[in-house]
Amino acid sequence: MLTIAVANLKGGVTKTTSVGFICAALHEAGMRVLGVDADGENKSLQAWQANADLPWPVVGMAVPNLHKTLPGVAGDLYDVAVIDTPPMEAQKGTVVSALRVATHLVVPMAPTPIRVRPPGRRAPGHQGSERPA
Q1: DSSP SS3 for 22
Q2: How far apart (Å, rounded) are the C-alpha atoms in residues 111 and 101?
Q3: Contact at 8 Å (CB) between 8 and 107?
Q4: Quick one: where's region Disordered (predicted)?
Q5: Fewer C-beta neighbours within 10 Å, C or N terminus of the chain?
Q6: CA angle 127–132–133, rounded 5-degree value
Q7: CA of 50: how far to CAs of 43, 46, 54, 59, 71, in Å?
Q8: Residue 66 structural domain
Q9: Angle between the N-to-C axes of helices 92-101 and 66-74, in degrees from 0 to 180, rounded to the nearest 10
Q10: Is 120 contained in some domain?
Q11: What is the pLDDT of residues 25-78, one digit of tens each?
Q12: Which residues contact 35 (CB under 8 A, 6 or more apart)?
């Protein structure tokens, strides 16, 4: 299963909005999409599902062992899972776990010179991993 983590160190950088648009685009392309709300404090993606009746399921999974839990929950039912992560500074264990299970990483940010600079060689939590960020 394709697994996309949308992550940033900070809150309020459009992670949930990005997840919503990514899920919508993949759903419209005919993929079986699972939205994963890993932010245990805000639960924004779950609120979207409750208020907007999204055409794809959203599950709450704000757990530090998400990389172990998600495959069992998703099984073969979905083509792609898109994970809305919490801010790294608030729930580091959950974010690192999301990065471990992810096949792809999206980092939303404002297109300002101070924010758009070359990232490090590897995403946080990937020390010793062979998978580049």
Answers
A1: helix
A2: 27
A3: yes
A4: 112-133
A5: C
A6: 90
A7: 11, 6, 8, 11, 24
A8: 2-106
A9: 50
A10: no
A11: 999 999 999 999 999 887 888 888 888 888 999 999 999 999 999 999 999 999
A12: 19, 20, 23, 45, 49, 54, 56, 57, 58, 59, 81, 82, 84
Tokens 């394709």 sit at which residue?
2
The CATH number that applies at residue 87 is 3.40.50.300
Give the pLDDT band (50/70/90) at residue 114: low
Residue 113 belongs to a domain: no
Domain-embedded: residue 13: yes
How far apart CA 42 and CA 46 sit, in angstroms, is 9
As for how many domains the chain has, the answer is 1
User: Helix, strand, or coil here: 54?
Assistant: coil
Burial annotation 110-125 (CB, 10 A radius, 16+ → b, else e) = eeeeeeeeeeeeebeb
Structure tokens, 107: 């980092």
Q: Identify the three-state secondary structure at position 51.
A: helix
Residue 80 CB-density burial (10 A; 0-12 exposed, 13-18 middle, 19+ buried)? buried
CA atoms within 13 A on the CB side of 14: 10
